[in-house]
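tool_call predict_complex ligand=dinuclear copper ion
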Amino acid sequence: MATGPTASRAQLNVSRSRWLGRVRSSLRRLSPLVVLVILAACGTTEQPLNSLDPLGPIAERIDGLFWLVFWIATAIFFVVQGGLLFSVIFFRDRKGRTEEPKQTHGNVKLEILWTAIPTLILAGIAVPTFQAVFELADCPSDALTVEVIGHQWWFEYRYPDFDVTSANVMVIPTGTEVCAEMTSDDVLHNFWVPKLNGKRYLVPGQQTELRLRADEPGEFWGHCAEFCGLSHAKMRARVEALVPSDFDAWVVNQQTPQEVLADDSLAAQGQQVFLNGACTGCHNLNGVNDINVDELGVYGPDLTHFATRNVFAGASLPAGLNPTDADWEAELRLWLSDPPTVKPGSFMGDQNLTAEDIDAVIAYLRTLD
Ligand code: CUA
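tool_result ok
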């Protein structure tokens, strides 16, 4: 029986090979999972929240900074890992090696060098970083102001220059700097439309600013980026950029009060459901009920020209990337039949509308274009 150092070395070898075997088999088991996770990031479908796909000058500025830092960090990674691998391979303990490699503890020149190089790199990165931070911090004075108010769980958009209030979809003109003046009506929220800018908090009782600019018309998706309660995951944001002439037409349309329907159409019945039910206590409709939501503690989205928005329920519905008209109606029906099942915790409770009521309300909402 082996005794002394020979025995312990043999035991060590056995436990080491066992450990290596276990690591190898876990890696084998994990590798398909890892590949799957990596592949999930490169799906061929649209990626509406991809922050590496900037579509406006502000987002491009941030993106440029990201790639600058990324490539510097990549170069550092390869230099450091290369040095490490070189040391591991060339200075390893091997057959025929009789003496230890030269030790460099306490080499003042080296210590100074590898303190100075990172310091210089960090200082170099700090210059464009601070430039960008200060450049993007304040809205220019000629920017178009859109007030963004966060609610559990939807974004409200007010245009003080035009006396227009909307929700869920922020419509902006292309080629124009937009200043989002943001606050919250309840808890912390965070407005994030990654293709147009980074994210910024909406703080109750305070005002924060976020610059947005899109140069091409299009729809930009966003999301509340701060956990804000039960339906945080359903608090989405949408920005729609229109060429200036379309934007002007949008403003004129939004400013037009809705007509009061006085016939016996299905839509007119829907209007009655709206006016006779609890809807009118939380939702303003210019020209129809004209309530002042600022006098209410909690209120719902302004429904004036509701049909010009392609999303509702905190922009979480319709859920698909490219919803059709039929999806819009089907999901609106789902939403109206019991809001809290769609958006847990929704302040709009189940209104106990009958199927006929819902048909009528949908017909009415369709007229609000
Ligand atoms: Cu609002 Cu999360």
